[in-house]
Design a protein that fits this description.
Blueprint lengths: L36 H4 L39 H5 L5 H9 L10 H28 L8 H15 L3 H6 L2 H23 L75 H6 L16 H5 L2
Helix pairs in contact: 3-4, 4-5, 4-7, 5-7
The structure holds iron/sulfur cluster.
The site of iron/sulfur cluster has 8 residues, from loops.
Length: 297
């Protein structure tokens, strides 16, 4: 089913470069990273990752040049989780800024260990930068823009701390502070998307809802809160998610064929990568259509 035509219900602002982080800095750039996600993170054997790997041990598919030896065949070889993941630019930040371009290979063990400790912390901070940057682009969030801007600057400052400071950072506390602002942003933006027309599910608060396998084909979810909702394998074919908050929603195997996500917000590339979709799925301009949606692999 083709997505229904919608009038843009949430306005996005063109922001000055010095007001926000460059969104392109908030996507992984593997060429500038020492393969940190393939070393620092632990993986358990599952449908997403074909073997067990402890934190701090290099994946056996990681090559000496920090590239993946099975990159073209990740899904076919049982590593689909690797095609879903994105570090939000934390890999290049830790490699090139925090550690000044010093590789974990060939250096002191202590430096490598510190690098692997710091990477997940910076990844969380960069994810917050992604949300804060998007919040600042949303016209309806204007009343909280000054606070969002301060939070963005503070988060960016935190990412530039020394390895020791980053390792000691209470990142959960910082996340909580930022989340208060993101919630306020969500209320303002969704309020603008509500009250226009009527439809199943529209504007509803489905925060944290268990929607595993839910049949939401063609649903009007404009202005809905789907924060942290579990939408695994749900059918959202042709659904309208204009002005819907998708922060933290689990979209693994969610069918987004022909859905309209153009003005959904707090949606990330890893969420999209985990979902299914089509050439007809409408996406926000900051996100990329996953290759497996159209290649069938
Ligand atoms: S399979 Fe490739 S992308 Fe996945 S962790 Fe190993 S080296 Fe990295």
């Amino acid at each position: 089913m083709a997505a229904r035509a919608t009038v843009a219900l949430i306005g996005r602002l063109a922001l000055m470069p010095d007001q926000i982080a460059d969104p392109s800095d908030l996507r992984g750039d593997c060429a500038q990273c020492f393969g940190l996600c393939c070393v620092a993170l632990p993986f358990a054997r599952s449908a997403d990752f074909a073997m067990n790997k402890p934190a701090g041990k290099a994946c056996e598919n990681l090559q000496a040049d920090h590239r993946c030896g099975i990159h073209a065949d990740l899904r076919a070889k049982g590593f689909s989780g690797c095609t879903v993941y994105d570090c939000f630019g934390a890999g290049q930040k830790v490699s090139q800024v925090t550690f000044g371009g010093q590789d974990w290979r060939g250096g002191p063990k202590e430096r490598a260990r510190r690098m692997f400790d710091v990477f997940p912390v910076v990844r969380q901070l960069h994810e917050l930068l992604w949300y804060l940057t998007e919040a600042l682009s949303l016209a309806a969030a204007g009343p909280v823009h000054p606070e969002l801007r301060r939070a963005l600057e503070e988060t960016e400052r935190l990412t530039r701390q020394t390895p020791e400071e980053l390792a000691a950072l209470d990142v959960a506390a910082h996340r909580q502070e930022v989340n208060v602002l993101l919630l306020r942003t969500s209320e303002l933006v969704r309020a603008g998307a509500r009250g226009k027309g009527k439809g199943r599910g529209k504007g509803k608060d489905r925060r944290g809802a268990d929607l595993v396998g839910a049949r939401l084909r063609g649903a009007d979810l404009r202005g809905a809160s789907l924060r942290g909702a579990c939408l695994i394998a749900a059918d959202l074919t042709g659904a309208d998610l204009t002005g819907a908050d998708l922060i933290g929603a689990d979209l693994r195997d969610t069918d987004l064929t022909d859905a309209d996500l153009t003005d959904a917000f707090f949606l990330t590339q890893p969420q999209l990568n985990a979902a299914r979709g089509s050439a007809g799925t409408r996406l926000p301009g900051t996100l990329t259509r996953p290759a497996h949606w159209t290649s069938g692999r």
